[in-house]
Amino acid sequence: MYDIQLKTVSKTYLGTNEPAVKNLSLNVEKGSIITLLGPSGCGKSTTLRLIAGFERAEGGSISLAGKIVSDENTWVPPEKRGVGMVFQDYALFPHLNVFDNIGFGYKEKDRKSRVMEVLELVNLKGFEKRYPYELSGGQQQRVALARALARRPVVVLLDEPFSNLDADLRVTMRVEVKRILKEAGATAIFVSHDQKDALAISDVIAVMKDGVLEQIGTPREIYRYP
Ligand code: ADP
Ligand code: ADP
């Protein structure tokens, strides 16, 4: 079963001539991690924004967990799509501690236990009272990931989550993020322009260029790796 399905989706921004994404079709299997890999400006972020519902596609359709969230007749707003997002700048609330950052907006009865559960998943037990400025880049990244996972999203979208980490931490976090996503059983799309990220983290790599998918396959198929 596919958790994410894009069928011939396009997006042209106002005031531009060339579509940022052209007739893109993509299927992501439940529980798998796919990387959109390609140079700056090739349409990776736009693809994520279409899936998250921050932009509306022209034509085609988008389905999440088998339900159409966007087509000619359907529009499900971002907050109802069950999407968890992780951004390159983490986007943590500076005035909230780790516990409240993760639990923000999560109103279920199991709030406390769920926050503690995801804190454990990202190896940050004991950090719940700290503020973002008291954390390293890698720890802030884990908090952002924990926040995205807390609501048990259908899909997790990660936009260049490592770009603010130094080289050593990046190597560690590739392994960590993969472990965390796999333990959570998440279906994830990860965006990067770094081939090493893609090789380390992906079940499937989709190479984008100028708004289209150039190639899609396992790391082995794309790079004869490992
Ligand atoms: P990537 O994530 O691969 O760097 P983007 O999806 O951000 O690529 O951008 C794809 C293309 O769309 C680029 O040419 C970019 O300049 C353009 N673009 C992105 N966002 C906007 C916007 N809000 N308005 C106009 N053009 C945009
Ligand atoms: P990234 O490389 O992570 O996609 P960008 O710096 O390209 O980030 O884009 C940051 C923000 O600016 C995004 O919201 C994107 O949609 C918007 N943006 C990108 N390119 C353009 C553009 N040419 N015109 C207007 N907005 C843009």
Q: Describe it for me?
A:
This protein is an alpha/beta fold. It is built from 7 helices and 10 strands. The protein has a 6-stranded mixed β-sheet, with helices on both faces. A 4-stranded antiparallel β-sheet has the order 2-1-4-5, with helices on one face. β4 (about 60-65) and β5 form a beta hairpin. The radius of gyration is 17 Å and the shape is globular. The two termini are about 25 Å apart. The structure holds adenosine-5'-diphosphate (2 copies).
Task: Compose a concise summary of this entry.
The chain is built from 7 helices and 10 strands.
Assembly category: single chain
The helix tally amounts to 7
Small molecules (ligands, ions, cofactors) in the structure: adenosine-5'-diphosphate
Mean pLDDT: 93
Q: Rg to the nearest angstrom?
A: 17 Å
